[in-house]
Write a structure and sequence with these properties.
The complex is a heterodimer of chains A (385) and B (326). Chain A is of the alpha+beta class and 385 residues long. In chain A, 49% of the residues lie in helices and 13% in strands. Chain B has 326 residues and is an alpha+beta fold. Classes of the chains: A alpha+beta (385), B alpha+beta (326).
Chain lengths: 385, 326
């Protein structure tokens, strides 16, 4: 097995290996495939990569990893996205969920379950948002009550609803945020659980997105019993769990998404007539991506140097949305009738992705929330009235 | 240069410039100050970092200078000092094409130059891969007032027999116009960071102190979002300039300059709107930055020019390269 000393060497070794195994890794469907096909493809590729060790670099040895810098995982995800081997959004759930288990689950639980996520035998989802909890996560209401005294209880009963839970209907487990304090306890009364999705009382209802794909779901919890050893972090310490995800979401997940956006802009460039009008649109989209990529790179360098990421990542979030819109707005302007009228797999892919790109200013805290954070925390403009 | 050193140098240059009150100083006075700060040594030992730091400070201070001449002569490998005074580089009046062309055995030059045009011994032009020095006496120099008189630019014209080549002065480098353009793009992009940071600071100060309807206008979300949007653009420009500083390359410098032009438009528009009435007057400092930003965007290609050029390259190569890696 290759033991690369630096990220650059790792990248070179990885690409050499991916070149050799291209046929084995490639999707069997044309275009983007159905969601079921995409998920099957991702789990198949993860299994191959885990077997070949690539999926283990950057993860701690106690959860089946081979150690090394987290940047190695980021490189892997970005390389897969750049080669169109899987949807970077689906793949990056690993990056969001595995660190949560590693940092907040009991060591025994983390060692038991994390390898299954890495090797493609399991899918997990993130149960955060609720119907009345969008950008204001701390107002969530899905309730967990201890059976008996909370300090000695061995079981908790969960009741409530989640929404926008990505891939819940494909998932074996869920990292779930619940209300355990008084209703108005905000971020001080939240507890995170690791819940098996086949527990009695859980109902999943997929939601069809604007592009026709059923990626999200509503998840209903009706007297769902969860054992105390499935609490992540401490009781009423769930806000820290939720916040710990932010640095991963805003560094490696973004880097993977950025790699995919470059790949799509390249595809668009090859499909478009080389007129000055088109060149100007492509050039401007490229400027957005370069601004985003250089910013994301410096954020990740700070993270690797030990910095704690905070409010300044709202800038990265705004830039990701701008990059996403730049690429797909360019596609809409350059590929006439493709998004609107083309029923081939080619048209289907651009249409689906164009519609999906509209979510960039909404998910993970809206563009407006990010600007509020920037104004208050980075520009020190004080509170809004 | 490690981060601490670079931070220290930034603070030193910024404070020295602030102390010199550039809005009341001439470009020549700023040049003298830069000389005292050891600008030519910095440029010789770590050109890319020195340019990034010094130009960003110049932009922030709204200072005119001839630092660009030194940066470009260094890129050309031509000594900044001529026979009895400094050399001055002729810059394109528009776009990135060289401002000089050969017409048989004659040379025709029409471009612009920094404040150094007033005192230069020689004007340097690049034609067909060689640098030529035009004796100052043979060159027509006229000062430009324009929208930003304080940028102290000059129109420079020459038409005459091919003058002496400076090639023998060039050490280890060819007089490659591409390296001049790349250096200029990097320096101007860095200068735009400073210009934009200054505009945003002025707008934030105003938003916090200006009271309307019994509250500072900084409490209005519409105002806050404009200022936030400005910071996003500036931070992205900063990252693009850092990438160009770390790895000097024509494409990274050009991208930084193009992003700089776009950023300047965004930030100027938002900040001017927030500053409203007072920003519309010459009593407030904002107008100086707005005008400097407009001039900097024009030099060596506007954001539009560069976006088009980059787009053409991507389309002809059929490739969208990621350029920077982790």
């Amino acid at each position: 097995m290759v033991r690369s000393a630096t990220t650059a060497e790792f990248r070179a070794d990885l690409h050499a290996w991916l070149d050799v195994h291209e046929a084995e890794l490639a999707p069997t469907y044309r275009g983007m495939g159905t969601l079921d096909e995409q998920i099957a493809q991702m789990q198949r590729v993860k299994a191959i990569l885990y077997e070949a060790d690539w999926m283990r670099y950057g993860w701690p040895e106690r959860v089946g990893g081979l150690g090394g810098a987290a940047a190695l995982r980021t490189e892997l995800g970005a390389s897969l996205a750049a080669r169109d081997l899987m949807d970077p959004g689906h793949f990056s759930l690993v990056e969001v969920l595995a660190p949560t288990l590693i940092d907040f689950a009991t060591p025994a639980l983390a060692a038991e379950v994390v390898p299954s996520l890495l090797n493609g035998s399991e899918m997990w989802c993130q149960g955060f948002s609720e119907p009345e909890t969008g950008s204001d996560l701390s107002s969530l209401r899905c309730r967990a009550v201890a059976e008996g005294d909370p300090s000695t209880a061995t079981q908790w009963i969960i009741n409530g609803q989640k929404v926008w839970t990505s891939l819940a209907h494909f998932s074996d487990r869920c990292v779930l945020l619940t209300r355990t304090g008084p209703p108005d306890s905000k971020h001080l009364g939240i507890t995170a659980f690791f819940v098996d999705m086949d527990t009695p009382g859980i109902t999943v209802r997929p939601i069809e997105m604007i592009n026709g794909v059923r990626e999200f779901a509503e998840v209903f919890f009706d007297d769902v019993v969860v054992s105390t050893d499935r609490i992540l972090g401490s009781v009423n310490g769930g806000w820290a769990v939720a916040m710990s995800i932010l640095p991963f979401e805003r560094s490696s997940c973004f880097w993977q998404r950025i790699a995919y956006l470059y790949q799509r802009l390249q595809a668009l460039t090859r499909l478009s007539e080389p007129t000055d009008r088109n060149a100007e649109i492509i050039g401007n989209a490229f400027l957005e991506l370069h601004a985003l990529r250089t910013r994301s790179r410096s954020t990740q360098h700070r993270l690797a140097a030990g910095a704690t990421l905070g409010a300044e990542t709202s800038i990265d979030k705004v830039l990701v949305a701008a990059g996403e819109h730049a690429v797909y707005n360019a596609a809409r302007r350059l590929l006439h009738n493709t998004i609107t009228l083309d029923d081939t797999v080619h048209g289907e892919q651009w249409r689906t992705e164009y519609l999906y790109s509209r979510s960039a200013t909404i998910y993970g805290g809206t563009a407006e929330i990010q600007r509020n954070i920037i104004a208050r925390r980075l520009l020190n403009l004080g509170d809004e009235r | 240069m490690d981060p601490d050193e670079s931070e220290l140098l930034t603070a030193t240059v910024r404070d020295a410039l602030a102390h010199a009150a550039p809005h009341a100083s001439t470009g020549s006075a700023i040049d003298a100050l830069l000389a005292e700060l050891g600008w030519s040594d910095m440029l010789a030992s770590a050109p890319s970092e020195a340019i990034s730091i010094v130009f960003s400070c110049l932009g922030y201070a709204n200072a005119a200078s001839s630092a660009l001449d030194d940066a470009l002569l260094d890129a050309l490998g031509v000594d900044a000092l001529g026979v009895d005074a400094a050399r001055c580089v002729v810059l394109p009046a528009r776009g990135t094409d060289p401002p000089a062309r050969r017409d048989g055995d004659r040379l025709v030059v029409d471009g612009i130059a920094t404040v150094r045009a007033e005192t230069a011994s020689e004007f340097v032009v690049v034609v067909d891969g060689a640098a030529f020095g035009l004796p100052a006496a043979s060159v027509r120099v006229a000062s430009i007032t324009g929208i930003d008189p304080r940028s102290e630019l000059h129109r420079v014209q020459f038409s005459g027999p091919l003058p002496k080549r400076l090639q023998e002065l060039i050490v280890e480098r060819s007089a490659d116009w591409t390296t001049v353009v790349a250096r200029a793009h990097h320096a101007l992009a860095a200068e735009m960071i400073g210009v934009n940071r200054a505009m945003l600071e002025l707008a934030c100060e105003h938003a916090l102190s200006r009271v309307q309807f019994d509250r500072p206008i900084a409490t209005f979300q519409a105002v806050r979002h404009r200022l936030a949007e400005s910071l996003v653009a500036i931070e992205a420009l900063g990252a693009a300039v850092d990438a160009a500083t770390e790895e000097p390359s024509p494409i990274l410098a050009m991208l930084a300059k193009a992003i700089g032009g776009r950023t300047t438009r965004t930030v100027a528009a938002h900040c001017q709107q927030v500053l409203a009435g007072i920003g519309f007057t010459t009593d407030h400092a904002f107008h100086r930055y707005l005008k400097r930003g407009l001039v900097l965007d024009e030099l060596f290609g506007t954001a539009d020019d560069l976006a088009l050029a980059i787009g053409r390259t991507l389309m002809s190569e059929g490739s969208v390269p990621t350029l920077v890696e982790l």
